[in-house]
């Protein structure tokens, strides 16, 4: 039996470092992730924990210098023919990697206003992406596909709005157009980096519903990166919790929500308001994320952890990853 039949992407021991004037920043330090066909993986954590660097590393978009992929593999699977390719071995600027970006893996970036150039129409920028990956297609065909994509993501009067400039779109409309561009070449995996940032709650709900609808229609996998636990608990099948460049907990969403095991994950849940039950005072996680250049000895979360074991959590190396219950992995000295 082929154990990789349901895998789209498998990230193993990913390490991406940045050599800056102040020292070496271990932005991603040994991350393991698996994304399955037609499923959604949520990656959560505070700002600076390495979520976005992980996604950029997968697509080989890390600027070098100062960044460098130090170690690890990113295996992209082709279940239909049993083939696979390690993205870490490809030239980031080579033809094969450019072919994979868009065709196989596409990305919605954090800020749609900066993702579109202000001097060109929305339609022309989506058409350009289509024509790069489909050189035999005519401009007329690319324009028709662009209009169809804009309609699919819910932009009204797409035949007219295709000639609008980015500044003529609202934030929610720009985000929908960004999704249209990301889907223009029918990728098997869509990476959504903070796709609802700066949007109000109503528009946020619409965007998330749209992503789920498109996923069902296209049998597409999604990796959604966010610091919003409410968002990820609604849309993700599995959740990976990251802290200071490392994965500290990984399990199915219902387990992360109902039975979080890592003290950091529990702290995240306690720090968000609940819509149901009695009104409770929020409990923010004490302290700040440590400077990644000067990591604490032992567990990186130890200086902020109310459950730390003195002389264990704050000494030695990082805690090992333990499978505490089936498919529920935690990196914490408590369970070692």
Verbal overview:
The protein has 336 residues and is of the alpha/beta class. The protein folds into two domains: 7-104 and 188-282, Rossmann fold; 118-186, no CATH class. Helices cover 30% and strands 26% of the residues. It has eleven helices and twelve strands. The chain has helices at residues 51-58, 95-103, 112-115, 122-133, 139-152, 158-161, 171-182, 201-218, 229-235, 253-258, 263-270, and strands spanning 7-20, 23-36, 40-44, 67-78, 83-86, 105-108, 189-193, 221-226, 238-243, 246-252, 321-325, 328-331. The chain has an eight-stranded mixed β-sheet with strand order 6-7-8-3-9-10-12-11, with helices on both faces. Strand 11 and strand 12 (328-331) form a beta hairpin. The longest helix has 18 residues, at 201-218. It is globular, with a radius of gyration of 21 Å.
Structure keywords:
336 residues; alpha/beta; Rossmann fold; 8-stranded mixed beta sheet; 11 helices; globular
- Total number of beta strands: 12
SSE sequence, one letter per element: EEEHEEHEHHHHHEHEHEEHHEE
Number of domains: 2
Task: Report low-confidence residues grouped into runs of 5 or more.
Answer: none
Specify the number of helices.
Answer: 11
Q: Per DSSP, what share of the residues sits in E-state strands of 2 or more residues?
A: 25-35%
Name the strands of the widest sheet in spatial order. Answer: 6-7-8-3-9-10-12-11
Q: What Rg, in angstroms, do the CA atoms define?
A: 21 Å
**Biggest β-sheet: count, sense, barrel?**
8 strands, mixed
Top CATH class of the largest domain: Alpha Beta
Q: Which outline best applies?
A: globular
Helix content: 25-40%
By secondary-structure content and strand pairing, the structural class works out as alpha/beta
Q: And the CATH topology of the largest domain?
A: Rossmann fold
CATH architecture of the largest domain: 3-Layer(aba) Sandwich
- Overall pLDDT: 88
Multimerization status? single chain
Distance, first to last CA = 32 Å
Assign the CATH superfamily of the largest domain: P-loop containing nucleotide triphosphate hydrolases
């Amino acid at each position: 039996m082929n154990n990789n039949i349901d895998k789209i992407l498998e990230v193993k021991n990913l390490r991406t470092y940045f050599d800056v004037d102040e020292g070496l920043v271990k932005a991603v330090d040994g991350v393991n992730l698996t994304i399955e066909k037609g499923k959604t993986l949520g990656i959560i954590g505070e700002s600076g924990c390495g979520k976005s660097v992980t996604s950029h590393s997968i697509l080989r978009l890390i600027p070098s210098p100062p960044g460098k992929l130090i170690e690890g593999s990113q295996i992209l699977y082709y279940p239909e023919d049993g083939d696979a390719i390690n993205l870490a071995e490809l030239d980031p600027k080579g033809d094969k990697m450019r072919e994979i970006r868009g065709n196989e893996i596409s990305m919605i970036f954090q800020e749609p206003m900066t993702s579109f150039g202000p001097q060109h129409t929305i339609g022309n920028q989506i058409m350009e992406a289509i024509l790069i990956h489909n050189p035999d297609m005519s401009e007329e065909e690319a324009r028709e596909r662009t209009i169809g994509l804009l309609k699919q993501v819910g932009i009204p009067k797409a035949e007219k709005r295709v000639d609008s400039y980015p500044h003529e779109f609202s934030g929610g409309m720009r985000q929908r157009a960004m999704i249209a561009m990301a889907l223009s070449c029918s990728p098997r995996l869509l990476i959504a980096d903070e796709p609802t940032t700066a949007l109000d709650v109503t528009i946020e709900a619409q965007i998330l519903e749209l992503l789920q609808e498109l996923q069902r229609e296209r049998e597409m996998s999604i990796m959604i990166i966010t610091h919003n636990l409410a968002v990820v608990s609604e849309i993700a099948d599995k959740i990976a919790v990251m802290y200071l460049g490392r994965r500290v907990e990984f399990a199915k969403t219902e387990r992360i929500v109902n039975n979080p095991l890592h003290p950091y994950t529990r702290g995240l849940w306690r720090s968000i308001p609940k819509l149901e039950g009695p009104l409770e005072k929020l409990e923010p996680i004490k302290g700040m994320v440590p400077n990644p250049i000067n990591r604490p000895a032992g567990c990186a979360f130890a200086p902020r952890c109310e459950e730390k074991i003195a002389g264990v959590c704050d000494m030695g190396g990082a805690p090992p990853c333990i499978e505490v219950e089936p498919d529920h992995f935690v990196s914490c000295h408590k369970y070692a």
